[in-house]
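Q: You know discrete backbone vocabularies at least as well as I do. I have my own habits and do not want them to colour yours. No explanation is needed for now; the record alone will do.
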Amino acid sequence: MQSSNIAEEFLDVIPRAMSIIRTKMREVPRSNLTLLQFRVLVNLAEKKLTQTELAENVGVSTPTLSRLLDGLKKQNLVAQIQSKKDRRNNYLELTKEGHIKIADIRKSACQTLNNHFSQIDRAQKTALESGLKALREIFPS
């Protein structure tokens, strides 16, 4: 497959996979998150970030992120903490409830995705694993 075809396939398949994840996200009990809120939580599950860093990661303006964070803070999913090194810097992190919510959503989505993956044979799974490994190398976090 040529590079341009790989890119087209990638752009075609990824939204379908994200649709499954989005559906599962909404099915998790007490999960009234939007996809954008979910993306914010996923980013914060990896590490603490400043509001500017987080806005860049999820692709929104800082005022838009600020409104999103207000809702997530009210749900006690995100907390703002002051840097110990520089009091002018504040970081955002997941609360215990935020970590639990992300874990529940990921578990539900993984079960569904694994059901889809069970439909392919071992050789295809091996190829998929290799492809995902390559994607991790191409798109490091």
Notes: Residues 23 and 109 are 9 Å apart (CA to CA). The chain has one domain: 3-138.
